[in-house]
Amino acid sequence: MADGDGLFMTARSARSIDAAWLLAGTALATVVLVASNSLAANSGDALVRNTIRLSLAWYAASLFLMLRLVPGDWIAESFVGRVTRWCWTWACLVYLIHVALAFHHVHHWSHMHALQHVRDESGVGEGIYVSYFFTAVWTADVLFWWLTPTRYASRSRWVDRLLHGFMLFIVFNGTVVYEDGPIRWVSAAIFAFLATAWWRSRVRREQKVSSGTASTTTPGKPRAI
User: What are phi and psi of 8, to 5 degrees?
Assistant: First the structure.
């Protein structure tokens, strides 16, 4: 397996990385679930809140790593490419757990209750369908990366810009605009950090292009965002 710098990762190394990140993600999710369920006075509320916080942590980590990938890394055959895919996967998986817990503890598996909750929070109950779409698109993107990594790596950068632009808009509104307390300020700080990292990666990329040192032989897309 060739990485973006022309080095190689053996199939055994790839399996080891997958096993390590599968165990690490499972252990972290388990700790959050057990602690939220056993230590909080309102376990249902704690489970919902802490799972989305963990998902956002994975989400921020994956976006930061995506900004540092070179084209060949998107095939997920390099160490950093594989780790990034795992971060993206765990962000989505924990988010799906959060959605299930929210429907169980808050909405009691009622779509109408969820719609009314969104209406109370934002004034537009039909926004729940945007959340459904967000969930479907993110899940599909993760599956796409795992099932056909070569096609994922070579897809148009505009697909990535639309995907991540939409997701960032939803996440920003959910964590900054419609939230309050510490989570709003922590989220705002994370967004500021990611914006700075994005700008620096763009400057570095333009410097490589202008100096003629950018890779022209490695297949794949130049960036995700």
Answer: -125, 145
